Amino acid sequence: MVRALACLLTCLPALAVCAASPAGADGPDVTVGQPVPVVDAAQPGEGPLAVTISPDRATVPYFGKATFDVTITNTATTGVGLFRIDMPACSLWEEGPLRPGATIALRCEMGPFDQSNRQYEVSVSATDFWSRFLVRRTVAITVGPPTSSVALQQYLDGVDPGAPEVPNAHPLGTALSLTAVVTNTGPDRLHDIAVADNELGAIPCPQSALEPGASMVCGPSRVAIDRVDVVIEITAVTAYGTDGAPVGAGDALRWRGLDPTPPCPAAPDLLRGVTVQVDAGPITDRLAGLRVLSGNNVIVRWSAMAPGAEGCRISLAQYDTPWRTFRPDVEQHLIAAASCAGAGCRSADGVGYELRLSARGMDRPAQFDLVTGTPLAGVGPSSGYYSAWLSGGTHRLIMAGTSVEATAPR
């Protein structure tokens, strides 16, 4: 007999109710939903199994449920066993034997559903002493449109930032106030409203529910302008309607910081007498071929700067890279960086200038770039390139190189 009866939901997290019980006379085979050929139980492959699913189709409201009755009958004169029934909401193991003429009946409640026109395949398999049989049926469910809806609009210091494709430029070191206006644009009351930003995390709202047509202002949250590369802020709202269906909306904006230091002049000898060293290791004049472990200090020193460059910003950046040489078609991501400008670049002993970068994530080779301005967050086809992404010398490559594998001392 039935050893185990488990109900599994694969649509959305919810309970599914299944019941097994004796059934009466077996009815005709029924294919539910989209028209598909119904294979007679006597044809090869299906053997002695007669399988029906009813009703013949289901249309449910958004986030609604559907109930189906499944029957399996042994039409042979001998028993069959080792049943397996797979359905999105119900699964059954019946180790048998299923006696001749006997029927297994299942009632499966499936849902809730949040997408339209779902179609599922139901399979029933069994064996007798000689053969294995497999029966397939199709279940189709049409889901109505959602009734609830919500809208969200971001503001920076009370101003609509406009199209997200155009970055808003703000001075480095400043801070802006981000607010989000949430509006219930549907006919139903919304509850459990939550707003979050990909950079800032959760944004507080004055209430957790909104009546139809009502709005509220969530925030403010502080946005620190601490990078010159383009940053995207994505704010999203989630809520639930009276029918329990989830709804959501989002808004995006882009901003970038303006470096207050003057741009470096486009001089070929911007930095003079450049040397490179890893901690107290050998001194070289190249960033390429360094043996660097996580926690090592990569130190770049220079003796003088070109005229007019004393106040400009110099940065040393570490990027991840899957290749030993730079490839313009491969995306690199910033891992660590050090930056200085003007007197902040002076060596501790007052002789010359230096930058120290503590290397991170050195489980594989990395790309080290000495550049003008603040380093880009990424280098590659979707981020930009030094000496080409911006004009005016704001981001120019001075020196670059890929490290080689290094082994930590044992």
Could you give the topology of this structure?
Elements: E1 2-7, E2 18-21, E3 49-54, E4 58-60, E5 66-74, E6 81-86, E7 90-94, E8 103-110, E9 118-127, E10 132-143, E11 150-156, E12 168-171, E13 175-184, E14 191-197, E15 201-203, E16 215-224, E17 231-240, E18 246-258, E19 271-272, E20 275-278, E21 283-284, E22 297-302, E23 304-305, E24 313-320, E25 332-341, E26 353-358, E27 366-372, E28 378-379, E29 397-402
Parallel strand pairs: 4-10, 12-18
Antiparallel strand pairs: 1-7, 2-8, 3-5, 5-8, 6-7, 6-9, 9-10, 11-13, 13-16, 14-15, 14-17, 17-18, 19-23, 20-21, 20-22, 22-26, 24-25, 24-27, 25-28, 27-29
Give a description of the structure.
Helix content is 0%, strand content 46%. Residues 1-45 and 388-393 have low confidence and may be disordered. It has no helices and 29 strands. A six-stranded mixed beta sheet has the order 1-7-6-9-10-4, with no helix packed on it. Strands 12-18-17-14-15 form a five-stranded mixed beta sheet, with no helix packed on it. The protein has a five-stranded antiparallel beta sheet with strand order 28-25-24-27-29, with no helix packed on it. It has strands at 2-7, 18-21, 49-54, 58-60, 66-74, 81-86, 90-94, 103-110, 118-127, 132-143, 150-156, 168-171, 175-184, 191-197, 201-203, 215-224, 231-240, 246-258, 271-272, 275-278, 283-284, 297-302, 304-305, 313-320, 332-341, 353-358, 366-372, 378-379, 397-402. It is mostly beta strands.
